[in-house]
Predict the 3D structure of the following.
Amino acid sequence: MIEVKNLYKSFDDKDVLQDINAVFEDGKTNLIIGQSGSGKTVLIKNLVGLLEPTSGQILYDGRDFVSMSKQEKIHMRREMGMIFQSAALFDSMTVLENVMFPLDMFSTMNLRERQKRAMDCLDRVNLVGAEEKYPGEISGGMQKRVAIARAIALNPKYLFCDEPNSGLDPKTSLVIDDLLHSITQEFNMTTIINTHDMNSVTTIGENIIFIYEGHKEWQGVSADIMGSTNKRLTDFIFASDLLKEMREVVNASSTAHHEAPSE
């Protein structure tokens, strides 16, 4: 579990995050949503240590990441997996070599053990047979699955995903969502996903935090969103005509149910 307490982040005189308090739960897909410029990317960068908070606490199972020494933070990062928006694979390495990279850097396994672990991870994301290919030889969806395999190679307790569905078609996005959700449950990880994808929100949003202009505006689960009365949240969620129509259908169905005469 990751707890954020009274978190502030400022750049010069501008407050980008203001008094963020949130809990990201084990074994669940925790989503951070919000408009561009709302502060959600800054929040996730603070969580992984790419930025230093102005004030506040970030507790990893009770351990304050902010107050750790440089060496303690390096050790702590070995418990984290990261999936970047662009997949960030090494073009000159094969798929297998990409997945082995964190094992080569941080594990004490011998070569055979590292290869076996990497192949197990590729098997988990249904990519056995692609291990000798290079990133440029596989699709964008396959690249994201390689990135997931690499992120779980060291058995992380915490998994961070920055726009994992960016650039993918809707069908492939659903595959990635399902994979992230099932892996989260299987390994009981604390998974945090920074996303704009409303399909992700409605299908795997087990704990959703909506950031608005640097504040935590709303927190809940996907089932609560359709009926939310928070105008800023609904304006964001139902920005597309299709989602507006969906909401109208839900509201109409709810009204008809309440108005139906009892027998």
User: Anything to note?
Assistant: The CA atoms of residues 24 and 82 lie 16 Å apart. Strands lie at 2-11, 14-24, 28-33, 55-60, 63-64, 80-83, 158-162, 190-194, 207-212, 215-220. The first strand starts at residue 2 and ends at 11.
